[in-house]
Write a structure and sequence with these properties.
Blueprint: E1 5-10, E2 19-24, E3 33-43, H1 45-52, E4 61-62, E5 66-74, E6 86-89, H2 99-102, E7 126-127, E8 130-131, E9 133-134, E10 144-148, E11 152-154, H3 161-166, H4 170-182, E12 190-193, H5 197-209, E13 214-217, H6 221-229, E14 234-236, H7 241-248, E15 253-258, H8 263-271, E16 273-281, E17 303-306, H9 314-326, E18 336-340, H10 345-351, E19 359-363
Parallel strand pairs: 4-9, 12-13, 12-15, 13-14, 15-16, 16-17, 18-19
Antiparallel strand pairs: 1-2, 3-5, 3-10, 3-19, 5-6, 6-11, 7-8
Helix pairs in contact: 4-5
Length: 365
């Protein structure tokens, strides 16, 4: 079978201007692979971090990891999806056989190599004969993708492709951080630092759980307004966070969700915890960043924990969140700030999404 030919946004090196160029998919699928026609891809701040070089990646690369798509071909061993299925694409690819997968923590799969092509095999993605890296095994800023079958989950016909795309990262991470990673309980005091798409999903999930108060922290007035509209009881700027939280919660938060990914905001999240509280880092932290916390505070059983994609299992969680969207329990439409073409992605990456209250969506043609 001849290789497919399509357009994709290629980044040759960190901070280099991305360009829309002609790419080639593989002629033959491997047994566990799925070929997809991309419908919509969200621009996540994690994509920006990779483009800036804060997170390690191979180059040249096609960025993008949050997407909806249609299945156009399946490998011989794939039974979970069929040609024509509308799907969400999620980076939480897993082997199903390693220690983490067997224990039910597929989001922490320890053998990602088993979900990829071997080095001696032909690449999934090439440009003029050279291999092109797919960011986080997805590479959604292209008209087509070839991924491992565990990266895709079918969605209901009633769900729009724009809504579905946001299930690939921001909704799954934000809701999973609250529901799965931190397991917030009704009546607990919650603070969310950073009210981009992931942060406001943490706000929505906390509201659904029945947390109170829910304090949203962000320097952007637009983001604070969005957080209020989606369930925050308070929304404040980054000034005097410590004093406001200590006073409003009578001693500190039970849970703090950090959705920025900087050492300063992570340290702040830990500082505003009540004794026995938990700070959950849902933001993408730079590969070389270091975090410092006061050791004495550990005597008060404060906890700082990471969060990988909301501790999700995509084939379980994505259908659940899809039904919540259709039932009106989850608002994803308010997260969409603009719809753009592939040619416009470079502008968003260079701007760092500064001031945007939600997601820029790349709509494929």
């Amino acid at each position: 079978m001849p290789s497919s030919v399509f357009e994709g946004l290629v980044v040759d090196a960190p901070n280099r201007p991305p360009q829309v160029r002609t790419l080639h998919g593989p002629g033959e699928l491997h047994r566990h692979e799925v070929r997809l026609r991309t419908a919509v891809a969200g621009i996540c701040h994690t994509d920006i971090h990779y483009w800036e070089g804060r997170l390690p990646s191979g180059f040249p690369a096609v960025l993008g990891h949050e997407a909806s798509a249609t299945v156009i071909e399946v490998g011989s061993a794939v039974s979970s999806v069929r040609i024509g299925d509308r799907v969400v694409v999620c980076l939480s690819v897993y082997c199903g056989e390693c220690r983490a997968c067997i224990s039910g923590r597929t989001h922490l799969c320890m053998n990602k190599a088993a979900t990829r092509r071997r080095p001696e095999a032909s690449p999934r993605l090439t440009e003029r004969g050279r291999a092109v890296h797919q960011l986080l095994d997805v590479g959604a800023f292209a008209q087509e993708m070839v991924v491992h079958h565990t990266a895709v989950t079918p969605i209901p016909d009633e769900l729009s492709m724009e809504q579905a795309a946001l299930l690939g990262c921001s909704v799954t991470t934000g809701f999973g951080a609250v529901f799965r990673t931190a397991q917030v309980q009704p009546g607990q005091a919650v603070v969310v630092i950073g009210c981009g798409s992931v942060g406001v999903c943490c706000v929505q999930a906390s509201s659904l759980v029945g947390a109170n108060p829910i304090i949203a922290v962000d320097p952007s007035p637009g983001r604070r307004d969005l957080a209020r509209s989606l369930g925050a009881t308070h929304a404040i700027s980054t000034d005097e966070v410590l004093s406001f939280v200590l006073e409003t919660t009578a001693g500190g938060a039970d849970h703090v969700f950090e959705a920025v990914g900087t050492p300063a905001t992570i340290e702040l999240a830990f500082d505003i915890l009540a004794p026995g509280g938990t700070a959950t880092v849902a933001g993408a932290v730079g590969a070389t960043d270091r975090v410092s916390i006061p050791g004495f505070a550990l005597l008060y059983e404060k906890r700082l924990q990471g969060c990988n994609m909301g501790s999700n299992h995509p084939q379980t969680d994505i259908p659940r969140y899809a039904q919540m969207i259709l039932a009106g329990q989850v608002d994803v439409d308010s997260l969409i700030t603009e719809r753009i073409d592939l040619d416009d992605v470079a502008r968003v990456l260079a701007g760092g999404q500064t001031g945007l209250s939600g997601r820029s969506l790349v709509v494929m043609h």
